[in-house]
Design brief:
344 residues, alpha+beta, Outer membrane phospholipase (ompla), Chain C, 2 domains, twelve-stranded antiparallel barrel, 6 helices, 13 strands, elongated
């Protein structure tokens, strides 16, 4: 009898691996019925039905089944920054990184903008300002997911972002170390996560977006500068996830001539820019190209991971528009500092 009971138990165990939930219960019940003694049978039934496997859950109607992301989707820079993977944090109104957040205690310019000007007579500074070539610069940037749903089988995410960049004449003790310029940039962007291979390029199209962008320095005339744009963007990532390209294009929203602080701003800042991102070990590199053929600008960022999220940070800029008040002023700047959040 003992050998028979053991054989039934082994047979039931093999059946559990091969049959579905209904057959699993039937085979298990037969094994328990073969137990001798009331207490042994009750204990067997208790173990059987408490450990019964759950039936698979079917996807909700109208929503695609969740798939495990591949390595590129899980590890890519844009995937992480924009929550493109299915395993990303989808909770609304949580703070996420947007653009780099850094502080450069020392930033040197070869040509400080002592007398900002504009085609609008109300925005022309009458006399030169006293500025130091060396100053500090910092930027904070974050965004939050305000809405996420599926439209016609495609996920759509609405992001609200904010970036603030300040140039601080901290070494001008004579004039009480004033803030020379602070640019405020709120924006809203509707993003569609994608995953389309671009063939032998080794790149994948990971996102496309459309939104609105406002940028201003919040100052009174003659220093006031501002503009509003409709912006589109697409993001590409390498299959390995260590290289990315972000392309943006914009159309400025027109303003009346008497209220336009900077009517020729697109002659200098153009209608598009491209951001290249590359990481190698502890090193991160970023290159931004922008402007028009006659008024171009380039910015190069390098960072090195020191500890956790703390990174050494170096920024080199050359061209027009290093800040909004300098949109039509050409200079080369070099800054050294640290970043808490960068592109990588």
């Amino acid at each position: 009898m003992g050998y028979r009971k053991r054989s039934l138990g082994v047979g039931a165990g093999l059946s559990l691996c091969l049959l579905g939930p209904a057959a699993w219960a039937a085979e298990g019940a037969a094994a328990c019925a073969a137990e001798a003694g009331d207490q042994a049978r009750l204990a067997c039934y208790d173990r059987l039905f408490r450990a019964a496997p759950a039936a698979p859950v079917a996807p909700q109607a109208g929503r695609p089944a969740t798939l495990q992301p591949d390595r590129a989707a899980a590890d890519g820079m844009l995937t992480e920054r924009w929550g493109l993977g299915e395993e990303a944090d989808r909770r609304l109104f949580r703070i996420h990184a947007h653009r780099p957040t850094y502080i450069l205690p020392v930033r040197w310019s070869n040509a400080p903008n002592h007398q900002p000007t504009s085609p609008n007579p109300d925005n022309q500074v009458a006399s030169p300002d006293s500025l130091k070539a060396a100053e500090a610069k910092y930027q904070i940037s974050f965004k939050t997911l305000a809405y996420s749903d599926h439209w016609f089988g495609q996920r759509a995410d609405l992001w609200l972002g904010y970036t603030q960049q300040s140039s601080w004449q901290v070494y001008d003790r004579k004039n009480s170390a004033p803030f020379r310029e602070t640019d405020y940039e709120p924006e809203a962007m509707l993003v569609l996560p994608l995953d389309t291979s671009l063939g032998r390029t080794g790149l994948r199209l990971r996102m496309a977006g459309l939104g609105v962008n406002h940028q201003s320095n919040g100052r009174a005339n003659p220093y006031s500068r501002s503009w509003n744009r409709i912006m589109g963007q697409v993001g590409l990532e390498s299959d390995e996830g260590d290289f990315a390209v972000l392309l943006r294009g914009w159309q400025r929203m027109n303003e009346s001539a008497d209220k336009d602080d900077n009517p020729d701003i697109t002659h200098y800042l153009g209608h598009a820019d491209v951001q290249f991102l590359w990481r190698a070990g502890r090193n991160g590199f970023g290159v931004n190209l922008r402007g028009t053929p006659s008024h171009a600008a380039a910015k190069v960022d390098w960072s090195y991971q020191l500890h956790g999220g703390l990174r050494a940070y170096v920024q080199l800029f050359s061209g027009y528009g290093e800040s909004l008040i300098d949109y039509n002023h050409r200079q080369t700047t070099l800054g050294f500092g640290i970043s808490l959040v960068d592109w990588f």
